[in-house]
Amino acid sequence: MLNPGFPLIFAALLCFFFKSRKIRYLFTFGALIISLVLMLTLPRNKILAAASFLDMELILNYISLSSRNIGIIFSLFALLVLIYGYRLLSLASLNLLNIFVGSSIAILFVGDFISFFFFWELITVAAFFLVYDKMKEKLRYIAEYYIIIHVLGGLSLLFGIILNYNYTGNIILTPPEAGLVFFIFGIAIKIGFLGFHAWIPKTYAAIPFQLAVLMAAYTSKVGVYALYRIVELETNLIAYLGLLNALGGILLAIFHSHLRIIISYSIISQIGYMLVGIGLTNNIAVTGGIFHLINHILYKGLLFMMAGTIFYSTGFENLTDLGNLWKKTPVTFLAGIIATLSIAGFPFFNGYLSKALIKAGLDSQLLYYGLQLAGVGTSLIFIKVLYFAFLCKNNNPDIIKIPPLSMRLGMLLISAFMMLTAWNPAGIERLFQITPAVDYFSGSSIFSGIMPFLIALLLFPLLKKYISPHPEKVFQRDFFMKLGYSFINLDKKISRIHSGDLIRYLSWSLLALLILLMVFLLAG
Amino acid sequence: MHLPILLIIIPLFTVFSLGLFAFFSKKYIIPLVLTSSLLSTVIIFFFIFNRETKLPFSYNLGSWQPDLAINIIVDHYTLVIFAAMGLITLLSVIYSLTEITRNKAKFYLLLNVLFVGTAGMVMTADLFNLYVFFEITSISSYALVAYNDKDISLEAAFKYLMLGTVSAVFLLLAIILTYMATGTLNMVLIPERLGNLPVLTRQILIAFYLIGLGVKFAIVPLHTWLPDAYVGVPITYNVLSSALIIKTQFFVLMRILYIFFGLNFLQNNMISTILLVWGIFSMLFGHAAAFQQNNLKRLLGYSTIAQMGYVIIAFSLGTPAGILAGSFHMINHGIMKGAIFFAAGNLHKAAGSYQLDKMQGMADIMPKTSLIFVLILLSMVGIPPLSGFASKWLILEASLEAGYLLPAFMIILGSFLSLGYYLSIIINIYTGEKNFSDNLPVGVAGLKINEIIPAAVLTAVCIVLGFYPAVLTGLIARAPEFLLQQLNFINIIIGG
User: The whole model's pTM is what?
Assistant: First the structure.
């Protein structure tokens, strides 16, 4: 049977022949529905499609519970983005969206490393063209940066794959027995692990906001899925690294004031939560990690939608220029509140359930208090956003464009879905077929859910002057770019020795002969 | 069956007839050239399709005794070059039909001389003939480089001539030394007689062979003629050079090394290691130098040097998997480079220059050609599902299987470096229309069909090979047998 991601890729191919926007939308919608149906109906834990490449057997369709759950949320979210971006997505980006989302979904259902690598790179290439803009120089360079860093990760993954293949002789997607370092390096870039995270804020803060909504949901989550499938350590190292990520992401985010940069850094922090979940060995925490991934896509999407709508209606994205918007954009404000409370893990909001699950699975006090601290930080960040964007009266930006109905509808739909899941844990458990033995609404877990938010609310007036907004540039050089530039300087030297002088060239070839002869004479 | 010798005779006959036709009636030149390359291609495909029944095949000129006669051999290893020839020659002749506008007779004459030389080098089993065909190839190459009569092409041709001649001296020296040591020039007799020589003598012989042919397949630092030569020549020559001629020279060197000296000698006396390290150096150097280039052709020239590095690495592993991977990449790189050069030629029609900054905005004018460009560049980096991934996978697998971890890592690193400069091409082509807003360049009206076909066909092949690399690996599956085991080669003519 068909891999659930393939309908989208076929739709992308079909779309090339139709220039009409409506038809392309129709194809995309149809493909997403088909893939949802496939995911819900196909039998699990069975090889459903295979192919061969050279002398290797590829497993093209193998559905496990976690991949099914992530896949469902991937296609649901794509539907929501299509609604939100109905008036914004360009004709070309619809095609690329199909390939991007299609390969993100397809990668979840393959069972071997070759096809895994194939879709891994396809995601990168599709994202490159999504980011790329012929007319804008900045976007051209960001796209270049994006693809270079991701291909670096991809090649590292490839090296790991081939080391493992050479060692074990098979390419089945299981925790590798050799070359684990290269797998981890490749995945770390994809998930934007602390230190490799620079592409996240760069990309998501600069591209058109409707694309940021889309892209932010997939790339790093695919990385988390890969980590879950591939990396299996004896220790809880990943969980502690995840904690580091959760706290580091907050430190990075809190001092920024560009809306989408803040949200991007907070992705890093939220990824940390997921890593804590899947890095632990017990079932509850792992389920919680995957569940958090699902929730995260929803509320992070909503946050990006909120930021996008603010930008669309006021033309500003930096908190220094915003303020007093709550009356002018009530729907956006509502979405902002729901998203903030969800990301903060406030009880009866979307993020609460998965955070409670992760906390229930923790086995050390350090992790528990670390995550609570991260919760305080997260709450603080988004209280800051809400305050400076909607409530504070310093600025009073005008509404230059009323956001179209589709954007508001998209935000309302996603908020409604989030609230539905938050109020109906039994339903969500049925949809995702998870059965944790955790009482979500016991007194202690509600208390530990409320705590961080309350602390943050109390701290905010005290810390306000330290984290108040300031103007900033979106694109800054980082370590990787400096490395690149130093390499280019080396290149210039190499280029310069090619002077075009014939005598020099002749002497090079004679020198080569001489060295060869010397090697033979001396070694012999 | 006289088919193999026809591969030499047909272009040779074309050369002489071209002279006559150029004198009497010019309108027959094109049909003649097309017919002759079509015939050659048919012969090549005959061998490719009947490889199981007809090969290995030896042809004895003049029916002398096998050990005295000049022999021509077509075995499974020869198929590697045949595959490239079958795909590239006809397509490049087709492409040249509109590219060459003046002095057609001269151009096709030189081109056919080149075909004579390459076909001869690939098939001959006689060292002296090898040298003759080597010189035929070289001299026609020098002339073709100078063909455009521009300052830059004349200067490049002069440099190429100088470097080529110096290297040819070493090749000749090596052949003479071999003859003095063994008393024969028959390639099947040399192996056992060379075995008695002291190790050092054999090593020095190898050094001479390496330098002599190394200039031609552009191993760093003997590569210096290549980027210069590529700038001022017709696209047809660019394609033929990087897809066929360079490969042929390397092919011959490998045959000499593995057949004459044997795998054990090469591995026990550092030759394999030297080649391996040299290949890595060549690859990294080529990638690094390509970064700074503004001229598209020069950049692709450096990229060819780097890609040859991969081939050298693969071949120097000395395992069947390595030879197979190297052969695969040789053919595959020919396909990719062919496609990209044809596409570059098409872009040049509209842009009027090969400078990257002058090519800005071409994507708006030629969307399909630009798409081909992007596809092939991604393939060169090794991004699936294009054929570049298959060859990179094969090389990596082979080198790890042979226990070489570092070379494999370097290949990964090299691929990463190559992404940097390939991206700069893409970004230049896909920059918004700024140069062409007021004066649209000439030639936008449309490409002729013969300019579209070659690039399209090769791109299609590249995509198909990406999904089904087994098509090509099946074709060359037995190539390693005839390279790594001397006896297989020797038995084609004597014994067996």
Answer: 0.91
